[in-house]
Amino acid sequence: MKTVILAGGYGTRISEESIFKPKPMIEIGGMPILWHIMKEYAAYGHTEFIICAGYKQEYIKQWFANYFLQTSDVAFDYTHGKNDITIHQNHAEPWKVTVVDTGLNTMTGGRIKRVQKYVGDEPFFMTYGDGVCDVDINKLLEFHKSHGKKATLTAVKLKQDKGILNIGGDNAVKSFREKNLSDGAPINAGYMVLEPAIFDYIEGNQTVFERDPLEKLVEQGELMSYIHEGFWQCMDNMREKEMLEQLWAAHKAPWSKKWDKSRNE
Questions:
Q1: Is residue 182 over pLDDT 50?
Q2: By C-alpha distance, which of 144, 162, 138 is closest to 198?
Q3: CB 175 within 8 A of CB 213
Q4: Largest distance between two CA atoms of the chain
Q5: Average confidence (pLDDT) over 137-148
Q6: CA end-to-end span of the chain
Q7: Residue of 135, 232, 223, 144 lying closest to 176 (CA atoms)
Q8: Sequence-distant (≥ 6) Cβ neighbours of residue 126 within 8 angstroms
Q9: Do 105 and 126 contact (CB within 8 A), yes or no?
Q10: 93-132 pLDDT tens trace
Q11: 48-53 and 72-77 beta bridge pairing
């Protein structure tokens, strides 16, 4: 399955760094948080990615264009008047990455709609390019397949300023509303599984995915929640970035436990 990652916003709440690069390219432990998210999915065998870029999208394209050489041992031989390059050892992940310019001011739903031709007529993962977690991706997918609805989102219960969910006893989402800073209810943490029918819920570039599409799915009983009781953390500001940096530096990064066990021993 393909994984769609939203990576096109301005990241204004972390402008100290996003003024220079897209928010998903802000580094944790020397690598973009986008890379960390991709490593999570790849650890469960999902290695085909579609990046919905926008703000400073050229930065993302350049990073991936250079990634192969940056993660390889390379010999440059000029002795015969040529620039012969030999790759001795390659450490790049076996990923397929499509970076799509989905527009500078396109809303989240519009970005998803604009990669429809790359997704095709099949279910796909979708998440935001600024949050890491230790959710079991394959158990999430198994849950999605079990209920037969059009969409599943991962829900975590934290005091955060994200979209608020009212979840029933059968895990069906009963209502979806915008954030309230004092809320401690389950929140939308991203890490979604979506059926291709989701594209029919998105009108155009200005559609905010978290509003009309998700609200309509709720009304129709087509949105389910996968309850995650483990680690999840977004990177909205410098304080949260520094917290993630500290976890990584201390070898206590929960989101890496599946793909880098040495960091959690």
A1: no
A2: 144
A3: no
A4: 72
A5: 97
A6: 31
A7: 223
A8: 3, 4, 5, 6, 112, 190, 192, 193, 194
A9: no
A10: 899 999 999 999 999 999 999 999 999 999 999 999 999 9
A11: unpaired
Token pair recorded at residue 91: 């450490």
Q: For residue 88, what are its two tokens?
A: 């001795």
Residue type, 258: K
Task: Concatenate the DSSP letters of all residues of the chain into one string.
Answer: -EEEEEE-S--GGGHHHHTTS-GGGSEETTEEHHHHHHHHHHTTT--EEEEEE-TTHHHHHHHHHHHHHHTEEEEEE-TTSS-EEEEEEE-----EEEEEE--SS--HHHHHHHTHHHH-SS-EEEEETTEEE---HHHHHHHHHHH--SEEEEEEE-S-SS-EEEE-TTSBEEEEE---TT--SEEE---EEE-GGGGGG--STT--TTTHHHHHHHHTT-EEEEE--S-EEE--SHHHHHHHHHHHHTT--GGGTTT-GGGG-
Across residues 229-252, what is the average pLDDT? 94
- Residue 165 — pLDDT band, cuts 50, 70, 90? low
